[in-house]
Amino acid sequence: MTASGALTVQNVWMEYPGQMVLERINLSLEPGAFCALVGASGCGKTTFLRMLLSIERPTKGSILLDGKPLPAEPHADRGVVFQRYAVFPHLRVLENVALGLHFAASPLTARLFGARRRAAAEQAEAMLESVGLLAARDKYPAQLSGGMQQRLALAQALILKPRLLLLDEPFGALDPGTKSSMHALLKDLWRERGMTVVMVTHDLSEAFSLATRVVAFDRVRLDPQAPTAYGATISFDIKVHRPQKSS
Amino acid sequence: MKRFINYRPTHAATLILAAIPFALAIGAYELASIFRHIDNPNDKLLPSFTALGDAIVRMGFTPDTRTGELLLWVDTLASLRRLALGLLAATALALGLGVTTGLIPYIRAGLSPVIAIISMIPPMAVLPILFITFGLGELSKVVLITLGVAPFMIRDLSLRAGEIPQELLVKAQTLGASTWQIVLRIVLPLIVPRLLDSIRLSLGPAWLFLISAEAIAATDGLGFRIFLMRRYLAMDVILPYVAWITLLAFAMDAALRKTSRGLFPWTALPA
């Protein structure tokens, strides 16, 4: 893959009415970086992720992906996995994964037929195999465990080869055993595919075991008379040495 | 000794418990009917079950002396046709307006207030207007049913569309979906099971408006027949008709419920 997925955040501020959420956020990620965002609840990690998704726009500052400003709305260049409502409950596992391919190739009906449908299904099956879900291809998400649902969400997001993969506490609701197998899977997928990853987590050990970059958000300026006057900013930015290619 | 809330009836007990109120009601009716007939053998208010049976045979299985038609079936067909047309129009409106107002902010801003106001108009109050505008034929009755149930269904579906988790809509966008594709593959499939629920909840009001319209101006239909028979105090016809209408409504409700489960197996799965 050519160098793509470089993220540049320049002096971004986010203010809600009467409340500063984020201020002076500067961050630069090289293509293929794995960045973990950590911090206390309510410090604006998720708000930052929503800005990367273009669900919210920064009050000030700019966010560039490969040198170009982010589009004003979510787009296939940035994939996402949420903690809850991560997949579509009305579609079977294979349909969930193939959905992105159907959207891309069939503007009018959003469905493929015949040979093109089979090709999409094959591609989706390969994707399912890489996340270990092929055996569950005809099940509905509600019939899967929490960990399997998140595997499905990853497969669904990755099939369109996004430059940037955004993860909003994707493993927060999983038990420790499932979590560590998800970590191994995510690490493999990231190494294979080389996309840039930004993951919000409140689990520090998760952050340090996965990321090449751990970024902490915190309110460093605090006015006791007006606790919402200052927003959170990046208080630590730690590079973790991690070989990008699998050994 | 367990708490009362922890006792659960077996399957057989559930069936028996459910049957008891029906048995009691039938028994009480029969007793009251017998006592009234002791006082007055010609009592019309509580006809005996034999008289009810005779009326059913007369209405349902004997050609009418004047028209040669089987009146019960003619009435049923006429009423069901009006009901189906009215509900169909309401369903189409609910799908079109409910989904768009629930999903698209510009359409919501433009249409929600006017829909909210229209839903407050008592449909029976505009029935004279409908009769004047559309005449006394089929159209005014169908429009009354549509007008009576569509506002509720539109608002219900609009709420349901608005309740679709933001995450799913964002996810669809990150998969490259356009507004149209999101409506087609995400919103409609998620909403249609709710639409069937909405229709089920609207069956009661729909029958109410149907029978009201038929009572006022019709020449056939279940409601027409009941109100016609009232003039002759013909309880032996009215009671079977009411029971028949109840059975029809119950069957429609059950059919819609089954359809929903059959077409959308994922709705029956534990979330």
Question: What's the layout of helices and strands?
Answer:
The complex is a heterodimer of chains A (247) and B (271).
Chain A lengths: L6 E10 L2 E11 L4 E6 L5 H8 L7 E6 L2 E2 L8 E4 L11 H13 L8 H17 L15 H13 L5 E5 L7 H18 L2 E5 L3 H7 L2 E6 L14 E7 L8
Parallel strand pairs in A: 3-8, 3-9, 6-7, 7-8
Antiparallel strand pairs in A: 1-2, 1-4, 4-5, 9-10
Helix pairs in contact in A: 2-3, 2-4, 3-4, 4-5
Chain B lengths: L10 H29 L9 H13 L9 H33 L1 H14 L8 H8 L3 H26 L2 H9 L4 H38 L5 H9 L4 H29 L8
Annotated CATH homologous superfamily of the largest domain in chain A: P-loop containing nucleotide triphosphate hydrolases
- Structural class assignment of chain B: mainly alpha
Give the mean pLDDT of chain B.
Answer: 93
Number of helices of chain A: 6
What is the straight-line distance between the termini of chain A?
19 Å
CATH class of the largest domain in chain A: Alpha Beta
- Counting copies of identical and different chains, the oligomeric state is heterodimer
Find the biggest chain interface: A-B, 35 and 26 residues
The number of helical elements of chain B comes to 10
Number of strands of chain B: 0
And the CATH topology of the largest domain in chain A?
Rossmann fold
The CATH homologous superfamily of the domain at 73-261 in chain B is called MetI-like
CATH C-level of the domain at 73-261 in chain B: Mainly Alpha
Spell out the helices and strands of chain B N to C. Answer: HHHHHHHHHH
Low-confidence sequence ranges of chain A: none
Strand order in the largest sheet of chain A: 6-7-8-3-9-10
- How would you characterize the largest beta sheet of chain B? none
How would you characterize the largest beta sheet of chain A? 6 strands, mixed
